[in-house]
Amino acid sequence: ALEYLDCRGTNISVLDVSKNIALKQLNCRYTNISELDVSKNIALKALECSATNISELDVSQNIALEQLDCRSTNITTLDLTTNTALTSLRCADSVTVTGYNGQRNS
Predict the structure, then answer these.
(1) Sign of the Cα pseudo-torsion (84, 88, 92, 94, in order)
(2) Pairing of strands 67-69, 96-98
(3) How much is the pTM?
(4) What are the residues whose beta carbons fall under 8 Å from the beta carbon of 88, sequence distance 6 or more?
(5) Rounded CA gap, 64 and 24, in Å?
């Protein structure tokens, strides 16, 4: 089963990882995607989706998530209430974050 997917820097505009349920690391930064559904990727530990056109990101099902980088996106809010394993968050200072008390952008 696919556990690591790195498609950064490609010209893709659509990315469907819904059938990759064993995925642990996803790097899709510097792509043209505008939507990303990771709700079925419950094993996901690291997600890098910076420098994309994504405006919404639901990581509520990704309770194993430890690292999230969503800088340079159109995301305005992030609810990380269920992401208790999260230790690294990188996002724009303008993003409203709920449910996370750790340091941002460190």
Answers:
(1) positive
(2) unpaired
(3) 0.94
(4) 66, 67, 68, 69, 102, 106
(5) 9
